Fold this sequence. Notes:
- By secondary structure, the protein is α/β, with parallel strands linked by helices.
- It contains 14 helices and twelve strands.
- A five-stranded mixed β-sheet has the order 3-2-1-4-9. A three-stranded antiparallel β-sheet has the order 5-11-12. A two-stranded parallel sheet has the order 6-10.
- α3 links the parallel β2 and β3.
- The radius of gyration is 33 Å and the shape is globular.
- About 17% of the residues have low confidence.
Amino acid sequence: xxxxxxxxxxxxxxxxxxxxxxxxxxxxxxxxxxxxxxxxxxxxxxxxxxxxxxxxxxxxxxxxxxxxxxxxxxxxxxxxxxxxxxxxxxxxxxxxxxxxxxxxxxxxxxxxxxxxxxxxxxxxxxxxxxxxxxxxxxxxxxxxxxxxxxxxxxxxxxxxxxxxxxxxxxxxxxxxxxxxxxxxxxxxxxxxxxxxxxxxxxxxxxxxxxxxxxxxxxxxxxxxxxxxxxxxxxxxxxxxxxxxxxxxxxxxxxxxxxxxxxxxxxxxxxxxxxxxxxxxxxxxxxxxxxxxxxxxxxxxxxxxxxxxxxxxxxxxxxxxxxxxxxxxxxxxxxxxxxxxxxxxxxxxxxxxxxxxxxxxxxxxxxxxxxxxxxxxxxxxxxxxxxxxxxxxxxxxxxxxxxxxxxxxxxxxxxxxxxx
Length: 419
């Protein structure tokens, strides 16, 4: 009887064990997570072709394998696909290049601000054209500045030091008089009124940058300053546009100059025109500068922190005579003449109206003003990210309307909404 009971207990234990094994096997049947592999697998089109050549595996800049899947993903019904066939422009556009360069006047301390500017210019334009970039400084550039800017520029970078005679007081300037003017402007709180370096900069940009040995290799320039922004894609070669359309000077923002900084500039200009009347061309833009046929100056000028222009014009005898005349008048130091009105007056008097161009399509910012292209279609087509409400063009302090009137040009469609 006892043996029979033991036999029954064995059977019960066996049944319990079978039940436990069933539950254990059921719980362990949950599939383990399958993580995507980062190993690069070439698609059929990337595999060895009939010639036996194996296409190069896509690389990141750091040399890492590109882990993007080779198959094109199916369209997501919850997104808006580019169905109109628009694609990003090629990494480098084909075609002939102009003899042109970007040029920047900067100091080593400007490295991170100019880095932002370069990134904008490269992303919006130069990655497609790979133009050179010349950097000029009144001191030696350090390794950090050179290293940072070199890797950002798609073209060749060149670094030049400004000759001392181009960044100092000329011997005909009365130092005591100049110092007294700076003190008076400081008391009046005139912007940069007491700055010596700002005056050297304005004089240099007015009369010397285009004569630097590094610049003599080029025919066209695009001036870029630290901390600027470009808001729209530029899908054509601006330098080639200037050459093909016989333009010699261009701008994106125009405005009235501070009267306190140039009280005798127009007198100096009239003195120049009386001595060198042969340098004043017919069909010029005097109407942009004056409301009374040249008797007085209305203070309108093109903002020169953005310029695309012809270097041969600046190196011409006409412009050199103009700058030399103004320089000896002393206004760069006895007042605070800016290079913007100096360039603008020269362009307006020594170039024909049609040789000056307004780049409505180059969206640009330099504190505190914005040029945002007028016209919604253009802004959308060129992936602009500027706010049209911040566009300065049709503001009452802007001179752009005057430029359109001077050239008998219709204003862009929709400009009324931005006034």
